[in-house]
Amino acid sequence: MGRLIEGYQDATPLLGDPVALRAEAEREGVLFFKGLLPRETVLALRRQVLEIIAGLGWLRPGSDPQSGLVDRDVLDKLTREQVESFHEGIPLEAYHAIQRLEDFHALAHHPRLIALYQALFDAPVLPHPRNIARVVLVNPFSAPTPPHQDYHHIQGTADVWTCWFTLGDCPRSMGGLSVAPRSHHDGLYTVHAAPGAGGIAINRDEDALDWIVDDFEAGDVLTVHSHTVHKALPHRNKDFVRVSCDFRYQSAEEPIHEASLRPHCGIFEWEELYAGWKRQDLQYYWKKHKLELAEWNADLHKPAY
Ligand SMILES: O=C(O)CCC(=O)C(=O)O
Question: Are 33 and 238 in contact (CB under 8 A)?
């Protein structure tokens, strides 16, 4: 029987000691940094995302969108068919609007994140441009992200680290990310189809693993190796929306699958996402690297039972 571990260890002191940071990363497969990103920067992006959600008519009339207070009368009328047609929790046009936000993608290049991954890889950092935003609401037709390893979804080098953080404070009642520390040492699991983001879960009794649970504040950053098992906790606070980001990072000297260089969701093109952007340096920036492209292994997704 696994243990429930209360709270992530803050690895901030290791940022000044890359050798110790890499040793901790290798041992645990997960690192947490309290308040790594400036709170005001995260909250400014939150406002932009919540204004898009407000445009759907999902937020409480008269409330400040920044509060994330939802209109249950509207949400309770969503049908299974509607919810199942959503992308990362919202209708496609709204997800597209989030993907078009320059500040969303710019945050992946924040100097504090680049410095973290530079120290972790000891090599030039390649932020994947395929950034993901997730909108999570309490409804009967969606499930929390099941226990999984990101490698099945990303492939390329195993040494990809996902950077996860919430846009706003996220007490565990709103479904934060729970990680099984040291699980990356067990190698890749086979999988089966499962409800929730990603659609696959590992073939392993999740109660046999240790799980870390915590509350998150805007600015906190959790990062996991691509073989580290993690899952979302169920969102139980029906009055508030949870919004989070997943950014991925690797060394520019390691192989990458070309899907990681395309916009998330498969149907957008960079040209449309970049429309109206001010900063040229955030666009097609990966082309300055001579990247080694990896093959896709479709067998990894084959359900083993
Ligand atoms: O935010 C979530 O629910 C899950 C995020 C996650 O596990 C991932 O993108 O790998």
Answer: no
